[in-house]
Structure formats: C-alpha cells, structure tokens
C-alpha cells in the first residue's frame, strides 16, 4: 500500500471548506424479502432462503412486500419528507456475481419519499439541520465469499462462493442533500446524523439498525472547495462504513487527503474508496464518473406504488416521538444534565430506565441501579446492559424493596447478584439467601444491648456526649446481623438506649 500524504486537519480547514453527502442503507426487519416470500432470518445455511424470484429465474414474477412500503413511508414521514402519490420501481442494470438478476430493483427518478430533513444535536448542544434529498426502496444483493487467500479479499483468492440468502432483502436508501456549512465540524455532523438516524429507525420499529451486523451502512461522499468559493469540488465516495466512529474518521481522513492533493496542485478523482478500520485510512476503489450508465428503466413486472393520502395520514398519526425530542423530555423529567444523559445514552440505558420507571420505580433509583451496579456488572462481563439476565421489572422490585426498608443498598446488590446468577426473582433471592433487613425491633434491640454490653468503654463515651463514637457500635451491630440491619435505625436505638439526643 502506498502511503498517502496528509495535511493536518487544522491546515486543511484553514484553506478549504468541506461539503458532504451521506447515503445510508438500512436493511428492513421484515419477515420476508422485498419481492418474494423467502425468509430474511440471519444465519441460515447458504442459499437455503432463495426462490425463482430472488434468483431471477426466467418466468418468475415479483410481488411488492406491503410492510416494506409501509416502513419506507414511515421513514419518509419521520424525516419530514413529502410522500409520492405515485411512484415506480426501476431496474438498475449492471453485472455483478452477487446479484443474480443482473439488475437491482430500485427506485430512480421516482423515489417514494423526498425533500425532508433531520435535525441533529451536536456535542455542544447546538442543532444542525441535515436536509434529505430522498429515501427510496430497493433490494440488497447476495454475498460473495473469497476463499483460499490470506486476506479474504478477491486478490489472491483461489475461488469464490456465493450466498444469495441476502439477495432481495428490503433496503431503504436515504440520501442527504449536500451538507454545507459544517466547516470543521463536518465529521462530527456526519457521525451525529448517522447516530440520530439509527435511533429514529429503531424508534420506528422498522429495523434494529445494527451497524456492526451490516443492517445499516453509510457511504460518505466528501469534497473540498477553497474557502469563500461556491462551486463544489470533486467528491470521493467512501463505501460501506459500518460504525459511528468510522463515519467520523472516514470524513476526517478524506478532508486531510483531499487537502493534501489539492494544495499540492493535484486533482481529486471521482472514485469510490474503501475505509480501513485498523488505521482510519481510505484507499482507492473504482473510478466512478457521472457518466456511469445503469440504463435505468421502469420495472415492467411491478405495479406502481400509490400510497393513498388517508393511509399516509394514518401512518403519520402513528409516528412515535422523535428520539431527540424524547431524549430532551426524559432528561427534564429525570432532572439530569446533558452530560449524564449522554452517558445514559451511550450505555444503552434509556429504554431500560424508562421500563423500570414504568414498572413502578422512581427515576433516581432506576437510574442509580442501571448506571451504577448493573453498568459495572455489564462492563465486567463485557456485554451490553440489555443483555444482562435481569429485567426492568426485577430492577423495579429491588427499588421497591429498598424504598420500603426491606433491603439496604448492600443487600440489594446481593439480590441483584442472585437474580443475575439465575436464582429467580428478587423476592425468591431474598427468601433463598435470607437477605431481608432485620427490622424486627425485638431482635434489633437485643443486638444493640449485646453490642453495648460488649463495648462498655465506647458506651460510656457516648453517654458523656461523644455521639460520634456511636459509629463503632453501629458497626458492631451491623456485623452481628451480617449487614442485614437498617443502619439508621440501629443508630437511633443505640442513642435511645444510652439516653442521649442524636
Ligand atoms: P451516487 O449514485 O453517485 O452515489 P447520489 O446522488 O446517490 O450519487 O449520492 C451522492 C451524494 O453525495 C448525495 O448525498 C449528494 O448530496 C452528495 N454530493 C453530490 N455532489 C457532491 C460533492 N461535490 N461533494 C460532496 N457531496 C456531494
Ligand atoms: Mg452513492
Ligand atoms: Zn425468494
């Protein structure tokens, strides 16, 4: 690999203004493919989920997946797009072995949704509006597997295998208008946009949008123009970037690379590029000029899609609250800072905390357990919070037991440990491990009497007014009750019995 000269990010921005375009592909979570009844389930035996239609065999006829169209309309509406009254699918003709039909059924000049926007919040709280050009329906390709080489790439491979299970899975492609005016924050805007879009897609329930599984991938188009000029420069298109961090890094790298080429008097070639996770660099893919001809034409085997206005309005009414709006509402309801909310979001805890509150916990306790003990355990186990073997209902029950005084925090942590270890619901763990706080006044009283008798010197100090010494006696009682007493109540009892005011 030839090393590429870069100029520093600051120097690049001192001379040039970045313009970006983001194309995001989202694999819908429909049960069946876009134009046939084949299953979309992941992990099946290669080529076991195929039929004459998705293999493009002669005589087969496609039928549009209604849920696919509904999902596209929902996405379009959530992005404030206009929804086409009538639109068609188009054939995008090209040859590639992972595409059995030799054309991709897509949409061309008649997308189902167009002219929208998505407001994204940057780290300093500022809102940046990203304008949406279009969102259209299409289908995914199959997968090639290059075998026999060292890298898994086609170069050096002895042969290739093809799996068509993914061919025909519904995709929605969402394309932004050129994003101008982001300046040095262009990479941050790119990342924030993809993050917000992913939250939105999840909130709509149309896809799980897991980037690491390729359910959502982003092409980053980027060009530079000299500061103060209008005309766009030539863009590069970094393909299939599949994490939020990589989106940001790819944009940043391309800014530095373009600046190096341009400032040394070179020209940028319009081409696709590959992103490399290891060092955040990109390398050239194929030359892609605007003359590229896919011989698009309307798909003759599918009827046009004409979503009725009534149906569109019905879908609009059913839209969930936008993620950004919901986040701000919850932040206020919970009384947390922007920073804490960001941590909650990063930890994937928002929905878990909401569900715990819905199950009866107060916001502060729900937050405390998920972001404290449970986050620690998830971290230790190297998993997500959501993957822990404890439900929001169970956490809410722990909160309730603490609130009513049956558990203190230390015991509550043991209860959580028991639930995670598969010992059952919190009540079952409390019973099974004998964990309830000793609240029986008689038993507590006896424990306090014993502690006073065993520590006569300390008791005298307390009697003579050194109330601070009570801590030692509280400790003795807690030890005697194996931590199962309510420490505050123990202290009260000690002072009461020794005849001093707390
Ligand atoms: P293609 O099919 O070649 O990928 P699209 O129009 O689907 O073209 O997507 C191109 C993306 O790049 C869009 O988001 C568009 O706004 C953006 N774009 C177009 N021209 C430029 C440019 N000169 N610099 C940066 N982004 C651009
Ligand atoms: Mg593109
Ligand atoms: Zn099929």
UniProtKB/TrEMBL annotation:
PROSITE patterns registered for this protein in UniProt: GATB (PS01234)
GO biological process assignments: glutaminyl-tRNAGln biosynthesis via transamidation; translation
Keyword ATP-binding in record: yes
One protein family per Pfam: GatB_N
InterPro entries, per database record: Asn/Gln-tRNA_amidoTrfase_suB/E (IPR017959), Asn/Gln-tRNA_Trfase_suB/E_cat (IPR006075), Asn/Gln_amidotransferase (IPR018027), Asn/Gln_tRNA_amidoTrase-B-like (IPR003789), GatB (IPR004413), GatB_Yqey_C_2 (IPR023168), Gln-tRNA_amidoTrfase_suB_CS (IPR017958), Gln_synth/guanido_kin_cat_dom (IPR014746)
Catalytic activity: L-aspartyl-tRNA(Asn) + L-glutamine + ATP + H2O = L-asparaginyl-tRNA(Asn) + L-glutamate + ADP + phosphate + 2 H(+); L-glutamyl-tRNA(Gln) + L-glutamine + ATP + H2O = L-glutaminyl-tRNA(Gln) + L-glutamate + ADP + phosphate + H(+)
Record-level Gene Ontology MF annotations: ATP binding; glutaminyl-tRNA synthase (glutamine-hydrolyzing) activity; transferase activity
Record keywords, A-Z: ATP-binding, Ligase, Nucleotide-binding, Protein biosynthesis, Transferase
EC number from the UniProt entry: 6.3.5.-
Positions of the Asn/Gln amidotransferase domain: 351-498
Coiled coil location: none
Quaternary organization: Heterotrimer of A, B and C subunits.
HAMAP family: GatB (MF_00121)
UniProt record similarity statement: Belongs to the GatB/GatE family. GatB subfamily.
General function of this protein: Allows the formation of correctly charged Asn-tRNA(Asn) or Gln-tRNA(Gln) through the transamidation of misacylated Asp-tRNA(Asn) or Glu-tRNA(Gln) in organisms which lack either or both of asparaginyl-tRNA or glutaminyl-tRNA synthetases. The reaction takes place in the presence of glutamine and ATP through an activated phospho-Asp-tRNA(Asn) or phospho-Glu-tRNA(Gln).
Designated name of the protein: Aspartyl/glutamyl-tRNA(Asn/Gln) amidotransferase subunit B
